[in-house]
């Protein structure tokens, strides 16, 4: 079962949790808005269901409300930033805006951000870039309980390590909706397993292994401790290909940024720390914008003209499902499963807020 709630009301309720743990009203609404946008986009795994975990992370002093990024390196086109364990939806936006200043000045920026609390849906940062008609590339590491098994391995050794690429399509009067490729390098996001577990659903074969390393369709193996006290693990997508990309995200997002990699046993903390390597490019300053815009349009049209495969809805490009879902949920409201809603209510009680 689930409830349906309008996005504005949902944002107000979630923001009240964050003000209760010390965020300014501005930060509380920025974080809540980002979480609700993930729900609106159909990514409930990165939506308001994360709020109770954020509250726990603040209470355990591994998440710092109202933090500001620290600039460690600034050579113009190269930025090294530290998120100071602040809300990712806050320090992540700060970092992107600082990178944008460098793109305006130089045409490109390579920016690393370490020690940010959960950045949320990485596609949000790509959407920020393509709004300027810029390209952005993001490699992200996840410093938390290791929940993804290496290809050929039998237990969790790293996080879901997202990769994201945003590309504007066309320019000016001919601009179309952008291409936003945003995905976890695990076969599915960990948050989707939390949602499936809360809803009492099974998942597709090949998605998970249990605490003994055996295949399972029970999402609970990566949500709650199992009979032997251990937990199962997600599998990487695409076998060795997804595994290879996950390793690249760990090394580029984590090691290169200074945020570090995961190579220890789980410590039980609720905090989720992300580090991210971001590359932003202005095609205009590269001198290829006109041709780039023309070629993006031509290629997208070429793809769309492919005949529909049997029993399919035709060609769907990255970013389209999210935009369609946003339109639907802005009108009809956001569904929240009962278990997730109860967790939000309990988080409110913990900090003296009535949800």
Mean pLDDT: 94
- CATH architecture call of one domain: 2-Layer Sandwich
The name of the CATH topology of one domain is Ribosomal Protein S8, Chain: A, domain 1
**Helix-strand topology string:** EHHHEEHEHEEEHEEEHEHHHEH
The CATH superfamily title of one domain: Malate/L-lactate/L-sulpholactate dehydrogenase, NADPH binding domain
Radius of gyration: 20 Å
- Find the structural class using helix and strand composition: alpha+beta
Strand tally: 12
Describe the 3D structure.
- By secondary structure, this protein is of the alpha+beta class.
- 39% of the residues lie in helices and 19% in strands.
- A hairpin with a 5-residue loop joins strand 8 (208-209) and strand 9.
- Helix 1 packs across helix 2 (25-40) and helix 3 runs parallel beside helix 11 (338-350).
Brief write-up:
The chain is α+β, with helices and mostly antiparallel strands. Helices cover 39% and strands 19% of the residues.
Give me the secondary-structure topology.
Layout: E1 2-5, H1 7-20, H2 25-40, H3 51-59, E2 70-74, E3 78-82, H4 88-106, E4 108-117, H5 123-130, E5 135-143, E6 163-169, E7 176-183, H6 190-198, E8 208-209, E9 215-216, E10 233-234, H7 240-255, E11 273-281, H8 283-286, H9 289-304, H10 320-332, E12 334-337, H11 338-350
Parallel strand pairs: 3-4
Antiparallel strand pairs: 1-12, 2-3, 4-11, 5-6, 5-11, 6-7, 8-9, 8-10
């Amino acid at each position: 079962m689930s409830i349906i709630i309008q996005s504005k009301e949902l944002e107000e309720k979630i923001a009240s949790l964050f003000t209760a743990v010390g965020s300014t009203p501005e930060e509380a609404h920025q974080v809540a808005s980002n979480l609700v946008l993930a729900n609106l986009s159909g990514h409930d795994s990165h939506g308001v269901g994360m709020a109770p975990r954020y509250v726990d992370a603040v209470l355990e002093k591994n998440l710092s409300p109202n933090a500001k990024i620290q600039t460690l390196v600034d050579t113009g086109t190269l930025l090294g930033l530290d998120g100071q364990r602040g809300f990712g939806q806050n320090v992540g936006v700060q970092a992107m805006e600082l990178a944008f200043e460098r793109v305006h000045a130089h045409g490109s920026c390579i920016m690393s951000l370490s020690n940010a609390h959960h950045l949320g849906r990485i596609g949000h940062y790509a959407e920020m870039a393509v709004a300027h008609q810029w390209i952005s590339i993001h490699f992200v590491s996840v410093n938390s309980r290791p929940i993804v098994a290496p290809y050929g391995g039998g237990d969790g050794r790293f996080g879901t390590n997202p990769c994201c690429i945003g590309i504007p399509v066309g320019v000016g009067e001919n601009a179309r909706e952008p291409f936003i490729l945003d995905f976890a390098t695990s076969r599915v996001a960990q948050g989707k397993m939390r949602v499936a577990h809360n809803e009492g659903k099974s998942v597709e074969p090949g998605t998970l292994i249990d605490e003994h390393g055996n295949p399972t369709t029970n999402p609970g193996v990566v949500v709650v401790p199992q009979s032997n006290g251990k937990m199962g693990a997600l599998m990487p997508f695409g076998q060795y290909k997804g595994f290879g990309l996950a390793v690249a995200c760990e090394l580029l997002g984590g090691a290169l940024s200074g945020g570090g990699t995961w190579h220890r046993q789980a410590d039980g903390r609720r905090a989720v720390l992300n580090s991210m390597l971001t590359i932003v490019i202005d095609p205009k300053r590269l001198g290829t914008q006109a041709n780039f815009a023309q070629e993006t349009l031509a290629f997208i049209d070429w793809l769309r003209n492919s005949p529909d495969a049997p029993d399919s809805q035709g060609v769907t490009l990255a970013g389209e499902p999210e935009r369609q879902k946003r339109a639907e949920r802005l009108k009809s409201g956001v569904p929240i499963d009962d278990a997730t809603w109860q967790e939000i209510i309990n988080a409110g009680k913990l900090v003296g807020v009535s949800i």
